[in-house]
Amino acid sequence: MKTIHYQNRNYTILGDLKASTFLMYLVDESNPEDYEQIYQKISNEYQLCMISVSIHDWQGELSPWPAPAIFGKHDFAGNAAKFLAELEGFWKWFKDEHNIESNQVYLCGYSLAGLFTLWASTHTNTFQKIAAVSPSVWFLNFVQYMQQNQIHASEVYMSLGDKEANAKNKVMATVKACFDAVIQNLQKQDIPLTYEYNPGNHFQDVELRMTKGIRQLLL
Questions:
Q1: C-alpha distances in Å from residue 17, one per residue of 1, 5, 50, 130, 214
Q2: Cα Rg for the chain, rounded, in angstroms?
Q3: Per the confidence metrics, is the pTM higher than 0.70?
Q4: Which of the chain's termini has less CB crowding within 10 Å, N or C?
Q5: pLDDT tens, residue order, the chain (219 aa)
Q6: What is the second-level CATH architecture of the domain 2-218?
Q7: Domain residue ranges of the chain, discontinuous segments joined by +
């Protein structure tokens, strides 16, 4: 494992640079999931190079457009386009720097990072497969956006906790209806899609859910 500092962002590399598949995993630098544990589980079964991408401003960098806060005072800044450009710039530099021949790069994320993953796949074909786990599809006007835009990924995995819609916050409580609407839209686009409902609320079994999603992409 080594960490690369590129253009004011940390990218932690786990695995062999000669792997045929690369996975970008979006993590909150202030509260990261245990991506090392996830990598250890998956690398026992699949040849994979995981790139953990450190997110500085979770609500700012991952939101596709500005929106008012639904909890606390931190509004959504809508800087996803800038962050996506950074990701694509890093991947191009990384491939050239390390003489990587593979074009198989996947993108995955949890919660708002899952929302970003879906949104990003409507703007680029860089990521062949994506996993959006417990994605924040309740985000303002996101369902409508997905209904009006085509995804460029060749395969999509999505999952949601079966109790996430029990949230006390009225906006977050719409998550299952929004999730189902996004699923229906992807089915209409005839994109290879796997989706499932996991037991529990939004904060339950994050590492397990992410591991399941990544495994599905690697089948």
A1: 11, 17, 9, 20, 18
A2: 16
A3: yes
A4: C
A5: 899 999 999 999 999 999 999 999 999 988 777 889 999 999 989 999 999 999 999 999 999 999 999 987 889 999 999 999 999 999 999 999 999 999 999 999 999 999 999 999 999 999 999 999 999 999 999 999 999 999 999 999 999 999 999 999 999 999 999 999 999 999 999 999 999 999 999 999 999 999 999 999 999
A6: 3-Layer(aba) Sandwich (3.40)
A7: 2-218
